[in-house]
């Protein structure tokens, strides 16, 4: 109808309000709560900082370049002023392309939503929805209301971005850390999704411990975190009390606040450590905050104490998986491992073992293999490891149960099938998981005093081959092959009354198979010249 056509054309002619506030965008703002040099859009910079700038590293800031019409923030410096000043203005920018976006009214595309991982329960449902040649990706309703595209300021502050300081009622969530020296500074803000762990020294006085704010639990939980229309209170998750000799006891109840006080020339209930745990949604909204405390006693002779602080972030309804690098492995962190789930229509994901780690037998002081069953040590990337135990064999032992017990000691109760090629490999990324090749080698040993033979495993050798992946400037460690070799030996039944001790060993070897980089130029001829001993003076 003509009326509907005219109404549609009127909506097209009216330019929608911008969804993104370009005045708040800044691509050069890298330091948290600090001014970045020559970053004219950094909100942490003051007029004194702008007077020292020589240029604006990003002179124009825009939102989506595919929009037909949008606002642009223009930054420049007035070097003729004394002192130099920053000039900021907002202009209208028009996209000359005929293929441009008029209105960003598809709300589901305005933020990243985690895709639904196929499981045996929802596979048929996902197949019906996305299995055809085409499928409908439109939302249930299209909203062309320009007012709905501009959410209120309260909703804008509720969704945090990576690295943005977590705001509270008075300022921001404190995570004390050493700045110049080892002394604690309370001016360090906790950045969203930035896991941190710090330790610093705090000056104390037992006579005044009840008046030192940094020793009280209230100092770390009395400010609520700013969320959407409500505020998130920081709850006390647990309280651990540490004695003067270092022994720790977990209190059964954490409902009662324990404030520092002086008792018998001791300062008790002083905060020695705080561990924050923040829960957020997939859109960056904080919904829960908890703090675990370690309280201790301070003697009268102590002039300072060491405090430890830690913060971690977990997405709602998501199982946290510890990473061992991003993306490549970091030397000293555990090698991640897992299993391919059974009954999947296709290998879409991998389920991790108990600790998501590749483990080997852990050496114990008794060195008894039968007593060491279940004791495992994680395989740390880049560390060659050797462990073992001793097995005492008597004539009363049966062959098959003994062989299965030793196999469980060497491989553990559930030996993984795959190893993550990168330190941050996700379960749904099938190509990021390397299968473990298992080999079996048998050694023949014959004894004249033994009567009947028995095959038992005596060693497990794991070889991890890795290579440097990516840029030569910042190469990333990537695992490309893992081989687990079980070596068995042939024993014969001992006569009655006799026994034998056999060593059982486990080992891990990391092999770098990276090929050397080939130069892009023709190699220069070698010149055999002996330089003077002080040729590079004063450099070594």
Detailed description of the structure:
With 540 residues, the chain is mostly beta strands. The chain has 3 domains: 22-94, no CATH class; 164-315, no CATH class; 333-444 and 451-512, no CATH class. The chain is built from 6 helices and 24 strands. The protein has helices at residues 2-13, 47-50, 123-130, 153-158, 218-221, 399-411, and strands spanning 60-62, 69-78, 85-94, 177-178, 184-185, 196-203, 225-226, 231-232, 234-242, 248-250, 261-263, 266-280, 286-299, 304-315, 336-339, 351-357, 359-361, 376-378, 385-394, 418-420, 433-443, 453-469, 476-492, 499-512. Mean pLDDT is 80; it is low at 11-18, 138-157, 345-349 and 446-451. Belongs to the tectonic family.
Break the fold down into its secondary structure elements and pairings:
Layout lengths: L1 H12 L33 H4 L9 E3 L6 E10 L6 E10 L28 H8 L22 H6 L18 E2 L5 E2 L10 E8 L14 H4 L3 E2 L4 E2 L1 E9 L5 E3 L10 E3 L2 E15 L5 E14 L4 E12 L20 E4 L11 E7 L1 E3 L14 E3 L6 E10 L4 H13 L6 E3 L12 E11 L9 E17 L6 E17 L6 E14 L28
Parallel strand pairs: 9-13, 12-14, 21-23, 22-24
Antiparallel strand pairs: 1-2, 2-3, 4-5, 6-14, 7-8, 9-10, 11-12, 12-13, 15-16, 15-20, 17-18, 19-24, 20-21, 22-23
